[in-house]
Amino acid sequence: MKGNYLGEFEELALMTCLYLKDEAYGINIVETIFNRMGRKVKLGAVHMTLYRLEDKGFVTSNMMGATAKRGGRRKRVFKLTSSGLEILKSTQEKRHAFYQSIPELKIT
Amino acid sequence: MKQKPPHPVPWLVRLLKWFCPEHLLEGIIGDLQEQYEINRERGSKFKADWLFISNLLQFAHFEMIRRKKQNQKPNSLAMLTNYLLIALRNLRKHKQYHLLNFLGLTLGLSCCALVLLYADHEFSYDSYHPEPGNTYRVTGEINYGNWFPSVMTSYADQLIDGAIPEIKSAAKFRRAPNNFAIYGENRFATRAVITAPGSNLFDLFNFNLKEGNPDRVLSEPNTVVFTESTAKKVFGEGPYTEKVLAWDSLQLKVSGVIEDLPTNTHLKFNMLVIADIPFNGVFTYITLNKGADPEAVAEKIQNLDSGNENYFVKTVKLQPLESIHLDAPLTFELKPPGNKQYIYLLSLIALFILVISSTNYMNLSAAIYTGRRKEMAVRKVFGGSRKGLAAQFLLESMLMTLLTLPFVLLIVHWALPAFGSFVDVPLDNAFLYSAKHILLLVGVAALTGLISGMYPILTMSNFSALRLFRKETLMSNNGLKTRKILLTLQFTILLTIGTGAYLVNKQLHYIQQKDLGIEQEAIIKVKNAYDLNGVEQYNAVKRKTLESPHILGFTTGIPPGTENYGLPYKAEGHEERRDALSFSTDPDYFKVMGIDGLYGDFFDLKPEELPNLTMLVNQQFVDRMGWEDPIGKKVSFTRGGNTRERFVGGVFNNYHNLSLHHAIAPQFIFVRKNMSFVSDNILIRIETANVPAAIKAIEDAWYSILPDSPIICEFMNEDIEAEYKHEKTAGILSLVLSILAVSLSAVGLIGLGAYMAELRNKEIGIRRVLGASIGHILTIMNREYLVLIIIASMLASTITFFAATQWLDSFAFRTNIPVYIFPIAAMAVGLITSLTISWQSGRTIRENPVNALRHE
């Protein structure tokens, strides 16, 4: 596996999961990304990305909390694993450090 | 508790179920549903629906489908690759067994393929015409049970003129005498049929016109349509239309050229003459309207006015176009008939060979799979299902049979010319271009593979892994019973074929050795004496021919083997009968044919002293009549109201006047000093010392009188032997076949012997330790086969005995069935079996018993 590399959207999804804790499931994630980032993402894309992250071992998922609204179906709630947390942190740090190292924030 | 509000688009949800992995489904549909509810609260139903669909379709993603495949089951493609790999490795590991298997299957399938081509050709006769199912030939019973493929012209003309509304179109043609087509210096022997101008022959039959106007080719009198290759031979290069040639007394203009006729048609001609020549009997073909009842039409034809009260058809039948080839032949048929039974026999034989090679496959693979028990056990331990194992076996046997196909094609290609001339049908290798044939062959191969692979599936995949590991003997299971049955089947086929082959060839030998009571070797038969114009020409040819020192005699008449029954006679003291053969000839007949006289002055008188007409009868006739003193007895013949009386002038020795299928028939021969007409055949006795010179003399004499008619002659004994053509073919075939079957079976036994020795390894070891001699152990090993052979021998003897009796009963003169051949055949098979088994188990027996017992 490509391992310690996160795509931009994957990073966003991970971050949202961490933020939402026990409520991190499909539409909630879509909503949160929209509210926080002003970005309309597709439900299918979110699901797909999270499954991929699950394959890579950065998140795990559990089924819980059926509601009538969902037609009695449970939610698939995603949760970061320690390696998920690790990679999110390191990605953020590296990016931040990189950003900080730019001497002037302007275009010549 | 699950309660489900209805989805907006249920079928889309089902679609989602189809491509989404099951374990993800709940979360996804839940999310979709929740989103939908949210959207419903926010806005219109239409918009919510729309969003639902759009959201759902986002999941129709390649990645999702891949996920589904991965999750559903262990990757079956990967398994298949593994099976294939193992199969190939096994092929390599057990080279010799697989080679034997391979050879057997290749031979079996090749036989099948050849027979398939033959049968297909035979059953495809005349099916390429425009409406084969609706087209019939009008056949008629003209006199005394003689069915003719032709009817009187008066009937045909009425049918063509539309006398019967059910008939869509009708056409007639007749056979023409053999004449040379003459074009400049070029002479070419033709086989012509004649049709009247305006005939719609081309509507009924499918002739591919290469040259000429399709609407006009048959419209003008004194024109001719050639087949392509004949046109080329007569004229050289084309175009051929408008060229003029001489034929018979006519000048014919070429109006068209058609493609050569295919081999699978009963129409055999190379030129089609369009001319107005009146003729009595014509071949008549009709196409009926859809739904018309052929029997009703036949009855209507029968009721037509023949225009001549002396000549009319007693009964009319409509013979379907496609069945003309394989039906029993009618009198004066256009071509030699096919033989249905013969096709069935060949098919049966091919099937036998295939069965033998399949049982071989099973026996040999049983031997191989014993060595692979551990592999199977390991597969089972790792969760290989029964299905999976079965798939593996099937794949292996399928692979094996399909791998033989290229070799089968090669063998077919190589053997086809020989086989074609053997069955007397020009065949071409349709497996190279016809999709139908290719599919059929692959189908047969796949089926063989399926059946062959069935046995290991039924036995091996059933065992628990534990049993497979423990090398426990598999003696007490069903597999052994199945194999015993298979083996008995194989032995039975082997013995049946073997003894059958012996009996067929014994009868053939008998036929060839049988004294027919006539001279056979030195007689040449000219078949087309009907081309002679009257008795004068006959006498001229006779005089000329006899001038040669190589010619001993010259006569006309009917050679033995011709069933010319029919003339009703009333012998003194008896009712009218029509069970005798009869013909007219000249006084030389008996000398030429070497038939001895028994009583009567006829045989002693000098030619000049003979009366103008003598009636001679054979001994059989005298016996049938029960006459003490036959000479001078009265026989009267009534025809058309006139009664003629004849008196027996002599009795000749019986000769086989029919084929040996029949008893010697009573017969009378009219000998005329001055003949009024000549029969179809001229029979010439020649000096065998110089055959070419004799033939040259005959040809010279013929062409000096008839320069424009090709002479058709052959040795009479060839003609007589042609009567037994099918028997002969069956004889050769059964010989080849039994050799093939024996060698195939021996191959199977080699594998089986190895297998049994391996299975009973430990038993042999213990017996050895306890002091059994090698001979004793061999006896034990062989015993069970001998029992099977005895059973098979009894079965095979019964089958052969009844089949052979029935077949031999079709001959009035037949050899006996020596009963001792059955035990001898059984012993021979037993010996071969015993040798193979002993050879194979010998290795195990000679081995140090410690090795066998040390296992585990």
Summarize the structure.
Chain A is mainly alpha-helical and about 110 residues long. Chain A has 4 helices and 2 strands; from the N terminus they run H-H-H-E-E-H.
Provide structural commentary.
The complex is a heterodimer of chains A (108) and B (856). By secondary structure, chain A is mainly α. Chain A has a two-stranded antiparallel sheet. Chain B is 51% helix and 16% strand. In chain B, strands 1, 2, 3, 4, 5, 6, 7, 8, 9, 10, 11, 12, 13 and 14 form a 14-stranded mixed beta sheet that branches. In chain B, helix 2 runs antiparallel to helix 3, helix 16 crosses helix 24 and helix 24 runs antiparallel to helix 25. The radius of gyration of chain B is 38 Å and the shape is globular. The chains are: A mainly alpha (108), B alpha+beta (856).
Quickly list its features.
heterodimer; A: 108 residues; mainly alpha; two-stranded antiparallel sheet; elongated; B: 856 residues; alpha+beta; 14-stranded mixed β-sheet; eight-stranded mixed β-sheet; 26 helices; 26 strands; 51% helix
**Percentage of residues in strands of chain B:** 15-25%
Q: Work out the radius of gyration of chain A.
A: 16 Å
Number of strands of chain B: 26
Output the helix-strand order of chain A. HHHEEH
Could you estimate the helical fraction of the residues of chain B in percent? 40-55%
Shape of chain B: globular
Counting copies of identical and different chains, the oligomeric state is heterodimer
The residue fraction in helices of chain A comes out at 40-55%
What kind of sheet is the major sheet of chain B?
Answer: 14 strands, mixed
Largest sheet of chain A: 2 strands, antiparallel
Overall outline of chain A: elongated
- Averaging pLDDT over every residue of chain A, what do you get? 86
Which structural class fits the helix and strand makeup of chain B? alpha+beta
Q: Work out the radius of gyration of chain B.
A: 38 Å
Q: What value does the average pLDDT of chain B take?
A: 82
- Give the largest interface: A-B, 25 and 26 residues
Number of helices of chain A: 4
Distance between the termini of chain A: 40 Å
Class per helix and strand makeup of chain A: mainly alpha
Q: What is the count of DSSP helices of chain B, taking H or I runs of 4+ residues? A: 26
Spatial separation of the terminal alpha carbons of chain B? 57 Å
